[in-house]
Amino acid sequence: MKKNLFILLFIFVISISRSQISFSHSVGLSFIMPTNQDLVDIGGLGVEYSPRLNVLEVGDNSTVSVGTHLLLGGSGGDSRSGFDFYYSLPLVAEYNFGSASNRDNMDNFGFYVGGGYGIFSQTVLSSSINAPVLTGGVRFIFRENIIDINVSYMPSTYKYKVAGESFSIDQSLVNIGIQYVIGGM
Q1: Would 82 be classed as within a structural domain?
Q2: What pTM does this model have?
């Protein structure tokens, strides 16, 4: 009985929200910088792809979405380590307002804020960070295209044990990107 009730509730919620669900995405370049230069000597440049599902429309000018800001990139590293490949995969929920908040919104300016949880992995230290992530950005029309300038912050602390002694090193990450909203105009 509970299972049938859950299935009926699920179908009801999907049928009501189905008219509100829409897909948006953007692609561009991104620069990632560690906050602790002792661990990684240089920031890196990468390609960022940001698909999102707008799951709830809040009026004509805003939506709530779930998505990601997938980042693949690399840096020259330092003389000891050579080239460093990395990826970042956050899963975020965001509130979008104004420009490109949904397919029909062609306002000149908009913004978004959100947060979630992400994974960052790199080859030089053969390590990864799993941490909360905060995101935000602005969207605006430039030469009849919608441009998205975004920033994200992933606070993290590495915990190491050396000779039985443990210590922590702050290695938070800041990501700044510029993207083209696909199909925005």
Answers
A1: yes
A2: 0.78
Domain count, the chain: 1
Q: What SS3 class is residue 10?
A: helix
Which of 150, 149, 119, 147 is CA-nearest to residue 133? 119
Residue in the block written with tokens 């700044």: 176
The pair of three-digit structure tokens given for residue 80, joined into one six-digit string: 């000891």
Residue whose pair of structure tokens reads 């020259």 in the numeric block: 76
In a domain, 123, yes or no: yes
- Assess if residue 16 is contained within a domain: no
Q: Which of 93, 106, 28, 108 minimizes the C-alpha distance to 63?
A: 93
* Cα–Cα distance measured from residue 133 to residue 110, given in angstroms and rounded to the nearest whole number: 21
9-67 pLDDT tens trace: 566 555 555 556 888 999 999 998 877 655 555 578 999 999 999 988 888 889 999 99
Task: Please indicate, yes or no, if residue 80 is contained in any of the structural domains.
Answer: yes
Q: What residue numbers bound the domain in which 36 lies? A: 21-181
What CATH number corresponds to the domain at position 36? Answer: 2.40.160.20
* CB-based contacts of 171, cutoff 8 Å, min separation 6: 34, 35, 36, 39, 40, 129, 156, 157, 158
Residues sharing a CB contact under 8 Å with residue 165, sequence separation 6 or more, in sequence order? none
